[in-house]
Amino acid sequence: MVVQRFGRPPGRGSGVFAVTAVLIGSLVGTATVSGCAAAEDPKPLGDPALAVRNAADVLTKAGTSKASTAMEMAAGGTRVTIRGEGGYDFRRRTGRLQVVLPKDAAGASEHRPITELLTPGALYMKNRGAGVPADKWVRVDTTTLDDGNLVTGGATDPAAAAELLRGARQVTYLGQVDLAGVKVGHYRGVADIARAARVASPQLRGALAAAAKGFTDDSVPFDAYLDGEGRLRKVRHQFSFSNQGRTVAVASTTLLYGFGVRVEVTLPDRRDIYAGRIEA
């Protein structure tokens, strides 16, 4: 088993954009993945909707995986992309990502990667900037965020991305495709955030319930790709929300591969968490 060790390390609508904008945020993109283990050729796993709704449970059984994320935000003619790499433990609902911000509008400035620790109910960020000392972490209660951290952190929590599929409806199986050398089944549908929140696992229920209240539209179009074992390999969600009279479109893509890696996440000491005022 490959060992991957990870060291130690609040309004509605406008709040989502404000926090994400600090990260310069958004996301989509097609990330390249490698190291996917061979799996059986996927066939329609019975009822397409049921197969997709069960994806979160299958990932819990799988345990852990590496993860690549991409988030693209489009608003007022501006489009920016944030990418992340790391690993996730679907049993503990914890993960660690290195999130890379895009260059500034002039293409000149490089930004230090933001380290994000994902845990049930909280998001920890280091190198966030915006007046936070370089050696300090910022802790955000995801149950108080407008979007439940579906977009705020610049990367959708992989477990939340899968749990959101529990609210899948109007699901269609589109056939088999190749994803980085792995045969996967392509499913398309719409996820209902409120429905997903009602049936989500206890650890993610609070965050999704917050998202159900924060988004103006509970319906989230998605494309999901499952391998022959029913494991979610890729999911792309398309979110939209209103910010100061403008509609902001966010496409979030999560890729999962390298199942079985060891993922260790150590939360920062309380003394290492920044308690001062955070600049917007």
Characterization of the model:
The longest helix has 13 residues, at 202-214. It contains 6 helices and 13 strands. It has 280 residues and is of the alpha+beta class. It is 18% helix and 38% strand. The strands form 2 sheets. Strands 7-6-5-4-3-2-12-11-10-9-8 form an 11-stranded antiparallel sheet. The chain has a two-stranded parallel ribbon with strand order 1-13. Strand 5 and strand 6 form a beta hairpin.
Summarize the structure.
The chain is α+β, with helices and mostly antiparallel strands. The protein contains six helices and 13 strands.
Using DSSP, what is the number of strands?
Answer: 13
Give the proportion of residues in helices. Answer: 10-25%
Order of helices and strands: EHHHEEEEEEHEEHHEEEE
Strand % is 35-45%
Indicate the radius of gyration in whole angstroms: 18 Å
Summarize the main sheet.
Answer: 11 strands, antiparallel
Helix/strand/pairing category: alpha+beta
Average pLDDT over all residues: 82
Contiguous helical run count: 6
Low-confidence stretches: 1-19, 21-38
Distance between the termini: 43 Å
Question: Can you list the strand order of the major beta sheet?
Answer: 7-6-5-4-3-2-12-11-10-9-8
Shape: globular
